[in-house]
């Protein structure tokens, strides 16, 4: 289902301390559910997390590089109110681009998810203990990381975990983004959270995304 088709279901977004107010008036953030992982799946996820390649986008031609730079400039302007420091803003956007592309995800959707989950706040913590930009539940550090929960506040670590986890859910749902987003929030099958992400993603749409 297309982004525009899903977003037509509609969802009013309201700013809240850690994200947005959802269908019951509470913050919509950080609700991945712990579930058993096959050894092969755990190994693959762990390997993806352990890859220490720096988040520096590389391009096969000048046209792609210019498209990225246009996107980066536009997103920097839109994000300025939320992240006033230029260097911090650029590093964040560069990492979002890198990690989303690395995981085979739509960058616009990832930005929408971050807006809903943490309102772009690096040190956001939900009432259930999810951490950082993409509101990663601590159990993921034990399952596929080194067990150090504090590292989830590191920008690249948090964004990599979030993108790898969303990719995992997308694979489990056979490419169905709507259902994968529900898994990410722990509300699989309910419309409100995916609708909130798709509505937020409209703020970050760009032809070069």
Q: Would you mind describing this structure in some detail?
A:
This protein has a single domain, classed as Lysozyme (Orthogonal Bundle), CATH 1.10.530. Mean pLDDT is 83; it is low at 1-27. By secondary structure, it is mostly helical. It has helices spanning 3-7, 39-50, 62-79, 86-102, 107-118, 139-144, 155-172, 177-185, 192-201. The longest helix has 18 residues, at 62-79. The protein is globular.
Please give the domain count. Answer: 1
The secondary structure category is mainly alpha
Q: Helix proportion of residues, in percent?
A: 40-55%
Which stretches of 5+ consecutive residues score pLDDT under 50?
1-27
The CATH topology annotation reads as Lysozyme
H/E element string?
A: HHHHHHHHH
Mean pLDDT over the full residue set: 83
Let me know the number of strands: 0
Main sheet, how many strands, which sense, barrel?
none
Architecture in CATH? Orthogonal Bundle
Radius of gyration: 16 Å
CATH class: Mainly Alpha
Distance between the termini: 19 Å
Number of helices: 9
Shape: globular
Structure summary:
The protein is mostly helical. The chain has a single domain (3-204), classed as Lysozyme, CATH 1.10.530. It is built from 9 helices and no strands.
């Amino acid at each position: 289902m297309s982004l525009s088709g899903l977003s037509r279901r509609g969802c009013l977004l309201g700013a809240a301390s850690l994200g947005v107010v959802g269908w019951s008036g509470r913050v919509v953030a950080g609700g991945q559910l712990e579930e058993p992982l096959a050894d092969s799946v755990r190994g693959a996820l762990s390997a993806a997390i352990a890859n220490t390649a720096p988040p520096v986008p590389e391009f096969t031609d000048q046209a792609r590089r210019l498209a990225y730079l246009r996107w980066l400039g536009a997103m920097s302007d839109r994000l300025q109110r939320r992240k006033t420091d230029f260097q911090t803003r650029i590093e964040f956007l560069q990492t979002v681009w890198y990690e989303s592309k690395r995981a085979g995800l739509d960058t616009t959707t990832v930005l929408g998810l971050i807006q809903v989950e943490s309102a772009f706040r690096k040190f956001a913590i939900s009432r259930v203990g999810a951490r950082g930009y993409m509101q990663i539940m601590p159990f993921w550090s034990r399952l596929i990381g080194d067990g150090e929960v504090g590292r989830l506040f590191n920008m690249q670590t948090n964004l990599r975990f979030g993108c790898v986890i969303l990719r995992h859910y997308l694979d489990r749902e056979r490419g169905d983004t709507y259902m994968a987003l529900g898994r990410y929030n722990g509300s699989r099958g309910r419309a409100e959270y995916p609708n909130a992400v798709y509505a937020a993603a409209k703020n970050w749409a760009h032809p070069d995304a």
